[in-house]
Design brief:
The chain is mostly helical and 153 residues long. The chain has helices at 2-12, 16-34, 66-81, 86-109, 123-152; strands at 41-42, 57-58, 62-63. The protein is globular and about 45 Å long.
Length: 153
Amino acid sequence: MSTHIVSSSAHTDRTGVQIISGIFGAVFLLVGILGFVPGITQNLDTMMFAGHHSQAALLGIFQVSVLHNIVHLLFGVVGLLGLKSRRLAKTYLIVGGIIYAVLWIYGLVVPMESMGNFVPLNTADNWLHFVLAAAMITTGIVFGRKAHAAAQR
C-alpha cells in the first residue's frame, strides 16, 4: 500500500508543463508507431527511408517515410522524458515547437517534388507542423512560466 501512495504522490508533483510534454510525447510516439502499421498507413509497401517518392500516407493524409516516422518516435521519447523534469519539458516544448516552425517554413519553400523534400512533406504535413509549432511553443511558454512561478514560491 505504501508503494501506491508514493507512486500517487509522485504523479501529483508533476507540473502542467511536464504533463503536457508527456501528452505530446505519447502522441508523437503513437504516431511514429502507427506510421509503420499497414491499414493505418496507406501504401505502406511504397515507403522509402527518405525522399518525396515515398507514397506511404498515415491515415491516407500525411505523407511519411521511415525517416519521418523515426523523427516522430524520437520526439515521442524526448517528450516522455519531460515527465521527469520541468526544465526538460519546457525546453522540449519550446525547442520542439521551433523545430516544427522551421519544418513548416521549409515545407512551404521547398517544392514537394524536389530532391530537397527529403523528409517527405506534403500540404497536410506542412499545416500540421504549423499547428504543432504554435501549440508547442505556446504551451511551453505559458505552462513553463506557471511552473517557474510556482517553483519560486
